[in-house]
Amino acid sequence: MAEARNVQIPYSPLTVDHTLPVPDMKPCLVKLCKDLFKKWANLDESHFFAERVAGGITNLLLKVSVKEQNGNTVHVTVRLYGPNTDYVINRERELQAIHYLSAAGFGAKLLGVFGNGMVQSFIHARTLEPVDMRKPKLAAEIAKQLKRFHQVEIPGSKEPQLWTDIFKFFERASTLTFDDIEKQKRYETISFKEVRAELIKLKELTGRLDAPVVFAHNDLLSGNLMLNDDEEKLYIIDFEYGSYSYRGFDIGNHFNEYAGYDCDYTLYPNKDEQYHFFKNYLQPESPDKVPEKDLKLLYVETSCYMLASHLYWALWALIQAKMSPIDFDYLGYFFLRYNEYKRQKDTCLSLGESYLSGPKPK
């Protein structure tokens, strides 16, 4: 938390029990807001209102509205971290990134940090649905914003973290035991020897692609994109998984998210839809002037790193299956992602190999 205090962000050691119904959380939320923001210290509880707005499969988001003495109402977002998420998320890295990304105009402004979450400015916009992301106009806007996101400089090591993170997930995911007998049986059907061999093979191939390293979002699903329809303004939010990584991974991961939590991969963008995205990403000001060789390279890069995205979230899901109290079939999610990886791998690896061994486009 020192990182947060270095940039004058208010800090409170208080925690909020995420398992409570929102009305029961309210006294604790009021106490937290008063502790973080001294200007509200003398307001009584009737000035505070709380409602649940959204939550991924690891976070809970609350909208807290505060009626100030002058009659103005201020809205903030309180984000409660899912329990045990620190096991897979580097919070210090996240807090540092938020400071610089917020300064560059991304996400909500960080207003305060507390024991198990953060308070941010409230964004007046709706969360996208997976179906929204494939609309050509929105896809172009997401691509342009992502390009700008990738240009933000975050201080510290620029070493890509992708394979470090994946192998860390692998070590944790491959040594679990479940109290639930049925879960344990399903878990024991996984060949971690096979998974490890796949990881090594994919790491070697993608390494030869020499993909650009950028500060990547790494979790650009519909729930982390918001749109103010009136202003037609798009927001990229939630940087929990942000790190220096490969351009192709961030884009391939985003394309995988077209499938939604149901993992309907028939919704994965076709080549024309991908090229539309690439053009707006590579040359936001003149998308129709992108050279074919640049599109081809990004297509190959994205196709190969899309495989890495499946392995990343498959292993992540196994850890969540053990650690998370949230009612979600994480073990089933592992198999959905890993099976899709196996279905796609021959096509994508062949694409990568043939590109690497063929003549380089001029």
TrEMBL record:
Pfam families (alphabetical): Choline_kinase
MF (Gene Ontology): ethanolamine kinase activity
Keywords noted in UniProt: Kinase, Transferase
Pathway: Phospholipid metabolism; phosphatidylethanolamine biosynthesis; phosphatidylethanolamine from ethanolamine: step 1/3
GO biological process: phosphatidylethanolamine biosynthetic process
Top-rank EC class of the record's enzyme: transferase
Keyword Kinase: yes
E.C. code: 2.7.1.82
GO cellular component: cytoplasm
Highest taxon of source: Eukaryota
Protein family membership: Belongs to the choline/ethanolamine kinase family.
PANTHER family in the record: CHOLINE/ETHANOALAMINE KINASE (PTHR22603), ETHANOLAMINE KINASE (PTHR22603:SF66)
The protein's name in its UniProt record: ethanolamine kinase
Organism the protein comes from: Helianthus annuus (Common sunflower)
